[in-house]
């Protein structure tokens, strides 16, 4: 088939002298000819005919490729086609913008609320504090929660942000009203010895689950009035290190006896077990419930998929952890980053595409125990430290031109090593994962 004749035919179909001189019903003729052209495209093979919307697809692919190669990409802003896309440190939280100093001892836990409008912290001074995030991203104290007799090491926000749970390894579980700061209920009591190491909410904000470091206490599901709904106890339920419930409420992830992760589907009752070689100190689940990370005492963070399709986890390293409980979290645009505390008093940030840290944030003077990324503001991060402070991190200063050139060179080198591009957070995880195997 002659390519020139095909192109000439297409031109005649789309345009004619009769249409120009208005000798025919131009609208009707145009519609008929467009339909004819569509039918001809189905009969003429590639590459003589360009596929429909091919240019749009190429432009979209070019934009996605630039986003995928940008390790600092953390913005909803549209990517321009008029220049190469390359974000800098001003897109991620990398500079201290506020220091909170209301606690009187080590701060062990920090967590933003689901709406991003509140922040909760827990301390070895036996208190927890609810902070409010203002419209200008400044943070101010809202309530100090004083009822615990021992250090508080864990908090959990209800999905609707109206209630807060607090607990500790040597403490009972308490439920607080966020608006008033009033204690609503204490689950168990100190005399009964029901100490809780971690807790989590179900999506309806009326049910919760907690795990105890005491093997005899196991795992208990309660309603907010303190009624026990279900319990898992016995020899199959050893010491609970940490636990989480997926956002859809279907699965419970539990870390048992340091090295074992159990994923239990509450509907099908199917259980999957993952065994790590090194002790696990903490667990964190992604916002979409498809992935979770665990911190290991071997100075690594492992990322697993909840569906069980991966044979090996993604591994991130660079921070320091050997003696203490260090907690990490997902964060940023589409949960494309991981943040973690460290025993060297610094905060570490990774892009999920790279195993080594993207940024190392200095400011604290002692071990950073926990970090939390604001789920509604991808450029806001909080960290809690043994130095008795909580630091709020905001966008850093833009990279210098020479640094941006170096970043671009490294990004181009990284991109050349990849055999495929990714188009979503899930595909980023998968592409990285398969590249590591």
TrEMBL record:
Listed GO CC annotations: cytoplasm
Keywords for this protein: Cytoplasm, Repeat, WD repeat
Compartments it resides in: Cytoplasm
Subunit structure: Interacts with RANBPM.
Cross-referenced PROSITE patterns: WD_REPEATS_2 (PS50082), WD_REPEATS_REGION (PS50294)
Swiss-Prot/TrEMBL WD repeat ranges: 100-141, 145-186, 334-360, 361-393
Record-given protein name: Uncharacterized protein
Keyword Aminoacyl-tRNA synthetase: no
The keyword ATP-binding is annotated on this UniProt entry: no
InterPro entries documented for this protein: WD40/YVTN_repeat-like_dom_sf, WD40_PAC1, WD40_repeat_dom_sf, WD40_rpt, WD_repeat-ST_regulator
SUPFAM superfamilies the record matches: WD40 repeat-like
Organism in which the protein naturally occurs: Capsella rubella
